[in-house]
Amino acid sequence: MTGALSDGAGSSRFSHYGAQLLVARAQALLQAQFEPLFRATNNLGSLRTRLVEDLRGELRELASAGINFSEEERKKFGLPPRTEQAQVQCDLQDLAATLLVVAINGGRFVALHIGDGVIGIEHLLKSGPRTKPLSVPDNGEFINETRFITSQDAEEYIRVFRGHLDTRTRNIIGFVLMSDGPEVSLYKRTTNEMAQACSKLLNAGRELPEEVMNEQLAVTLKEVIAPRTHDDCSIVLIARSAAPTPVGSGMTC
Fold first, then answer.
1. Tally of domains within the chain
2. Which of 67, 68, 77, 157 is 20 to 30 A from residue 165's alpha carbon, by CA?
3. PPM-type phosphatase domain location, by residue (predicted)?
4. Strands 187-188 and 193-194: what pairing?
């Protein structure tokens, strides 16, 4: 099972198309490269470089082939009408986006992250579930800056995390991936802690039917989290049931 989230750069005109492509391709690549990534030792650096090059190559192909924009978008961005130019080419940097992805396979996980946003990991402790940061925001030198798959040095900054879900000292029962919008409410930078609400959301994902969970998650994002931020709000939940069979949910607003 995989879950992925990508947040387009606010300064890039067509980053939502880049984010959409990255979510689909990153999940496929991580599934295909799960074993090499999980077992990698001295060759991890070359695997990271290959992943970034593959994803950047996909974005470059999209930019070169062009995008079939809607009429509304053509008016918004001052693009030629479809009758004159069906596919509109763009620059690679127009598609800049972050990437957070987690794959689970045979009691193991691999996670990738570049840019801002947070990947949280939920442990089952004697005192109950607790969600901790696995990968925190990378904002570079300034809080309002970050790195993207399109960044020239992305292969140096993409982070890889690997592990077993169950060991003698821990049981991992969930993952939460979020963009920088929900981060304001669900992650405390000053103390490097996840809000208790993360475990509540994951638990709801275990107990509720997917359709009901998605409806409640949409309401939470729109009415509770979105008013506290000016950024887009996207969140992906991977909750491990008692069985343990992963179940997932995701939402963007």
1. 1
2. 157
3. 4-221
4. antiparallel
Q: Find tokens 């763009």 and name the residue.
A: 90
- Model pLDDT for residues 189-204, shown as the tens digit of each residue: 999 999 998 998 999 8
Sign of CA dihedral 128, 184, 92, 21: positive
The model's pLDDT over 11-57, given as tens digits with 9 standing for 90+, comes to 899 999 999 999 999 999 999 999 999 999 999 999 999 999 999 99
CATH number of the domain at 135, please: 3.60.40.10
Q: Which distant-in-sequence residues (6+ apart) come within 8 Å of 49 by Cβ?
A: 155
The whole domain housing 42 covers 2-252
- 94-120 burial, b for 16+ CB within 10 Å, e for fewer? bbbbbbbbbbbeeebbbbbbbbbbbbb
